[in-house]
Design a protein that fits this description.
heterodimer, A: 316 residues, mainly alpha, MetI-like fold, two-stranded antiparallel ribbon, 13 helices, 78% helix, globular, B: 289 residues, 11 helices, transmembrane (chain B), OppC_N (chain B), transport (chain B), membrane (chain B)
């Protein structure tokens, strides 16, 4: 128990340092804008007075170090700034668009894992067979397909062609959750299938690593059934690299969601970021970047903690 | 005598080539990539039309002998545009690989070789890798202003930590090897040890990782262009072609099929190359692919 507590504290310390760097990087990114960010945001029609007002509103008049301290203090209060174009706090803008992104990411990872785990395990167990070769080839091709292109093809075939799913949107504000889920099917397939490629390859590789180990041979020699050998002995020991890659995939899914949401017209955080970039709404870009990176750091932390639970030998 | 000397000198090279292209992944990858690169380089000679040549009478025509991949909403030849678009994609990806390799090697070697720098650089890399690639690139492009150069710079910065991680890991191993210890004991200047003994031995892992970064950069550039936050929409890239083609995809599916296939084949060729090279460099990994 003491070991787990020590591990937890160690990792917590590391995570806080990384989060502090993330905050600093995000702060710096907006400040590297050539020229005046306020002038860039308002465009060429803005008067000097408009620009000066916006500079004051964004706190850009203060020295850099003061801006940084104010930025960090704001974050500690849960304040990510104000979107100039949406005229609402960034936290509110992000929160109102979190649902589609959350469920899109969740369903995509579920689709990816439910394809990757069985296929990867089976491919490793039947190494060198036709099935294995097809899996290796297909994962290679799937990893080369841009998710937004697969999304466009799915819209064309399953939405426009067959009419089985909506081609875009997330239903109206008064629609039921089921209707909204229906809107998420195609984007989740587009993202999930592409990301399943990486997880399948890692699952196969991790399984191949352990299938030749002594304890697997011993289990077989003791007469354990093949299913028990694969699931109980091999897969359990192969889980650490698999959990790692699933954790990493979540970041990739969020990146993919930015583009996929645009293809499918989903009113999520990805769509918000793209429109913020086109409008140069820096506070929104900054806030979204920060929140997504923080979520990724937290997921990594959770994955590290899972290691300890999955494999008691692990000391972090 | 001369013949004998030449033959024996040629043998190791021939053997290396045989070993290289005996790997099916490398062979397939190299052939596809060669076609893409040649098509891009020879675009002005092999493209039947200028990429921006308008021909309204021919708008949205399906694939035919006159227009192999069909035409777009302005009657422009998709085949010609796809070939010219390859130039931008390859140029961007090559630029990204150069920037991320330089940054990645500097950071990775510094972290791996100098113990004091390891912790701060590693935490910086952890932080940089917490940002999803497209999102970080979008933010950087937004901050720096959209242009070909900023897309290259933004993606170069985004992918540098991936290379730095690999370089750091390999440098940590190299640092403990007897010949590096001997070089240090002999009093060789640090820069000489780094250049002669460390960097040279890092060439293989860097090459493998750079190939994967090349593939990722190609996908990322296509995504940025598709979103309209990358290079100018007037420039034909596979991403901008897909973005403008999607409005007409119900009636003219070829507008999205061919640029998409161009992306898939190019990225696939790089993945195959990267995989094959990795297996050659580290045969222990060969069983995994």
């Amino acid at each position: 128990m003491a070991r787990i507590a020590r591990t937890l504290l160690n990792r917590l310390g590391g995570m806080l340092v990384v989060l502090a760097i993330v905050v600093t990087v995000v702060f710096v990114i907006v400040r590297v804008t050539p020229g005046d960010p306020a002038a860039v945001m308002l465009g060429s029609d803005a008067t000097p007075q408009d620009i000066a007002d916006l500079r004051t509103k964004m706190g850009l008049d203060a020295p850099l170090i003061v801006q940084y301290v104010q930025f960090v203090l704001g974050l500690l209060r849960g304040d990510l700034g104000q979107s100039i174009f949406l005229n609402q706090p960034v936290t509110q803008a992000l929160a109102s668009r979190a649902e589609p992104t959350f469920f899109l990411t969740l369903f995509s990872i579920l689709i990816a894992v439910s394809i990757a785990l069985p296929v990867g395990v089976l491919s490793a167990v039947r190494r060198g067979t036709l099935f294995d070769q097809i899996v290796v080839t297909l994962t290679m091709v799937a990893a080369s397909v841009p998710s937004f292109w697969l999304g466009l093809l799915l819209i064309q075939v399953l939405a426009v062609g067959q009419g089985w799913f909506p081609a875009s949107g997330y239903g109206g504000p008064d629609t039921t959750f089921l209707v909204r889920l229906h809107h998420l099917v195609l984007p989740a397939i587009a993202l999930g299938v592409v990301n399943s490629a990486l997880i399948t390859r890692f699952t196969r590789a991790a399984m191949l690593d352990v299938l030749g180990d002594d304890y697997v041979r011993t289990a077989r020699a003791k007469g354990a059934g093949e299913g028990r050998v694969i699931l109980k002995h091999a897969l359990k020991n192969a889980m650490i690299p698999i959990i790692t890659v699933i954790g990493l995939s979540i970041a990739m899914l969020v990146a993919g969601a930015v583009v996929t949401e645009t293809v499918f017209g989903l009113p999520g955080i990805g769509n918000l970021v793209v429109s913020a970039v086109l409008r140069r709404d820096y506070p929104v870009i900054q806030g979204a970047l920060l929140v997504v990176a923080a979520i990724y750091v937290l997921i990594n932390f959770a994955v590290d903690m899972l290691y300890v639970l999955v494999d008691p030998r692990v000391r972090l | 005598m001369t013949t004998l000397t030449t033959a024996s000198a040629a043998r190791p090279f021939a053997a290396s080539l045989r070993r290289l292209f005996g790997n099916r992944a490398i062979l397939f990858g190299a052939v596809i990539l060669l076609v893409v690169v040649l098509a891009a380089l020879l675009a002005p000679w092999i493209a039947p039309y200028a990429p921006n040549k308008l021909s309204i009478v021919n708008k949205l025509k399906g694939p035919s002998l006159g227009h192999l991949f069909g035409t777009d909403e302005f009657g422009r030849d998709i085949f010609s545009r796809a070939i010219f678009a390859g130039r931008i994609s390859l140029l961007v990806s090559l630029g990204v690989v150069c920037i991320s390799t330089v940054l990645g090697v500097l950071l990775g070697v510094a972290a791996g070789f100098f113990r004091r720098l390891d912790a701060p650089i590693s935490r910086l890399l952890d932080a940089m890798m917490s940002f999803p690639d497209i999102l970080l690139a979008i933010a950087l492009v937004a901050a720096l202003g959209p242009s070909l150069a900023t897309v290259i710079l933004a993606l170069g910065i985004t992918y540098a930590p991936r290379l730095a991680r690999i370089v750091r890991g390999s440098t940590l191993v190299l640092r403990e090897l007897p010949y590096i210890e001997a070089a240090v004991a002999m009093g060789l200047p640090t820069w000489q040890i780094l250049l002669r003994h460390v960097l040279l031995n890092l060439a293989s892992p860097i090459l493998v990782q750079a190939t994967f970064v090349f593939a990722s950069a190609m996908l990322a550039e296509a995504s940025l262009s598709f979103l309209g936050v990358g290079v100018s929409t007037d420039m034909p890239t596979w991403g901008t072609m897909l973005a403008s083609g999607r409005e007409y995809m119900n009636n003219a599916p070829w507008l999205m099929v061919f640029p998409g296939l161009a992306i898939v084949f190019s990225v696939l060729s790089l993945q195959l190359l990267g995989d094959g090279l990795r297996d050659l460099v580290d045969p222990r990994l060969a069983k995994e692919s």
